[in-house]
């Protein structure tokens, strides 16, 4: 079979079909189910752009979700995912079809009911995942243009997290936990130094970037070069910042349930000392 044999057209944009390699698949593509019936053959060469859900569990979840979702929204999300795939030049985790469709559908219902949910990690998300955040902005603009509903800036952040989850192949809860942890760590630094960060400032951006890469190294189990002489010097010269860095690494260990290599402590101390020095210069 050199194409897809249709079992059932679920709507204009989604069909269930038999694929020569993958067996039964759910195929999503603009207009792919229009005027189609069971037994029809669609040449793969004739299909310009589509997504195929091969995972059986993802297929069943998507089929259950479809009747609850407006068909126009399916088309919008299909366009959005094609935009992400082309922009990022990567394969997306299949689960984004379910996760993003469900999320945006529910966000539209909340908006209609006048229910607003604030995004507590909006600024961290913008700093941590700037590319995904820009795509989130594109998504919200597209929804407003096609459906006449402005989901607002908080939803940009939520959509960005779903995109990052699919691109990095991480569970959305893992991504959210990392953002939450960074938010907590920034709060500890701000309180300890009595230095309220200006959101979007260079200091804020640098701290978030440092913490992000530290967390990624810890999760990967990547070890930094340990400089014992420097570590001893930092402990003597900057005891308060060293203690604060130690506190932060303990929070990371506790939340991630992973060991933090000692070298992270030294590099974090240097960063905190630079921040503290800037604060003192600002207040002189």
In short:
The chain is of the alpha+beta class.
Descriptive notes:
The structure is a single chain. With 284 residues, this protein is an alpha+beta fold. It has 3 domains: 1-68, Transcription Regulation, Sacy, Chain A; 69-170, PTS-regulatory domain, PRD, CATH 1.10.1790; 180-283, PTS-regulatory domain, PRD (Orthogonal Bundle), CATH 1.10.1790. Helices cover 62% and strands 10% of the residues. The protein has 11 helices and 5 strands. Strands 4-1-2-3-5 form a 5-stranded antiparallel sheet, covered by helices on one side. Helix 2 runs antiparallel to helix 5 and helix 3 (96-113) runs antiparallel to helix 6. Residues 68-173, 174-282 form the PRD domain. Keywords: Repeat. It holds the Pfam family CAT_RBD.
Q: What is the CA-based Rg, rounded?
A: 24 Å
Mean pLDDT: 85
Number of distinct beta strands: 5
CATH topology of the largest domain: PTS-regulatory domain, PRD
The CATH class name of the largest domain reads: Mainly Alpha
Largest sheet: 5 strands, antiparallel
Summarize the helix and strand pattern as letters.
EEEEEHHHHHHHHHHH
CATH H-level superfamily of the largest domain: PRD domain
**Secondary structure: helix percent:** 55-70%
How many helices does DSSP assign?
Answer: 11
> In the residues, how many domains can be counted?
3
Unreliable spans: none
Strand order of the largest sheet: 4-1-2-3-5
């Amino acid at each position: 079979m050199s194409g897809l044999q249709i079992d059932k057209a679920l709507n204009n944009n989604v069909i269930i079909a038999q694929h020569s390699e993958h067996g039964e698949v759910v195929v999503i593509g603009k207009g792919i189910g229009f005027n189609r019936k069971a037994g029809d053959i669609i040449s793969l060469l004739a299909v310009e752009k589509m997504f195929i859900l091969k995972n059986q569990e993802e297929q069943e979840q998507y089929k259950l979700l479809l009747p609850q979702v407006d068909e126009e929204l399916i088309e919008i999300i299909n366009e959005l995912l094609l935009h992400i795939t082309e922009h990022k030049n990567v394969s997306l985790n299949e689960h984004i079809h379910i996760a993003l469709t469900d999320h945006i559908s529910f966000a539209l219902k909340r908006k209609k009911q006048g229910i607003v949910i604030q995004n507590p990690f909006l600024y961290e998300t913008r700093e941590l995942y700037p590319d995904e955040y820009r795509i989130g902005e594109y998504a919200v603009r597209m929804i407003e243009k096609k459906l006449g509903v402005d989901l607002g800036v908080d939803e940009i952040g939520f959509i960005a997290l779903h995109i990052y989850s699919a691109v990095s192949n991480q569970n959305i809860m893992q991504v959210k936990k990392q953002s939450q942890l960074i938010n907590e760590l920034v709060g500890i630094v701000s309180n300890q130094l009595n230095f309220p960060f200006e959101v979007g400032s260079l200091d804020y951006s640098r701290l978030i970037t440092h913490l992000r890469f530290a967390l990624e190294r810890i999760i990967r189990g990547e070890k930094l070069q340990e400089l014992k002489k420097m570590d001893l010097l930092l402990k003597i010269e900057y005891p308060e910042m060293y203690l604060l860095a130690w506190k932060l690494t303990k929070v990371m260990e506790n939340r991630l349930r992973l060991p933090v290599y000692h070298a992270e402590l030294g590099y974090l101390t240097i960063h905190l000392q630079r921040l503290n020095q800037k604060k003192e210069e600002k207040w002189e």
